[in-house]
Automatic annotation (TrEMBL):
Residues 27-127 form the Rhodanese domain. Coiled coil: none annotated. This is OLC1v1011060C1. It comes from Oldenlandia corymbosa var. corymbosa. InterPro entries: Rhodanese-like_dom, Rhodanese-like_dom_sf, STR17/STR18/HARC1-like. It comes from the Eukaryota. Pfam families: Rhodanese (PF00581). Transmembrane segments: none annotated. CDD domains: RHOD (cd00158).
């Protein structure tokens, strides 16, 4: 047996920060917030100035991974950008952060607790009010 390349990928180290640390990063540095929730979730409320690139889509069969996720992120972010990835509760964002780190993004954090914790802390959110929503107000 020679020195064959390993088929096991090296594990990446996902660094998770809480919502307070995320807020501090977004307000004090060059960090961008990447919201990986579905468009529907995003429209119901999101962190101000967030980029929305869904990591998964809802289908009749359940959620499926967005096959163009990395391609879409690369169309708006550089691998050197400082990014905090968030979702609804902090699960999808771990997977998305892992994918970004494996794709050689250098400065990516996962926001633990997700949008749910962000709202619980009373931090500012932005909501998109459409024509259908305005009728309910």
């Amino acid at each position: 047996m020679g020195s064959e390349p390993s088929l096991v990928a090296e594990p990446v180290q996902v660094v998770t920060v809480d919502v307070q640390a995320t807020k501090d990063l977004l307000h004090s540095g060059p960090y961008r917030y990447l919201d990986v929730r579905t468009e529907e979730e995003f429209k119901n409320g999101h962190v101000e100035n967030a980029l929305n690139i869904p990591y998964m889509f809802n289908t009749p069969e359940g959620r499926v991974k967005n096959p163009k996720f990395l391609e879409l992120v690369l169309s708006v972010c550089r691998k050197e950008d400082h990014i905090v990835v968030g979702c609804q509760s902090g699960v999808r964002s771990v997977y998305a952060t892992t994918d970004l780190l494996k794709a050689d993004f250098k400065h990516v954090f996962n926001m633990g607790g997700g949008y749910i914790d962000w709202v619980k802390k009373g931090f500012a959110v932005k909501k998109q009010v459409g024509e259908a929503d305005a009728a309910e107000l």
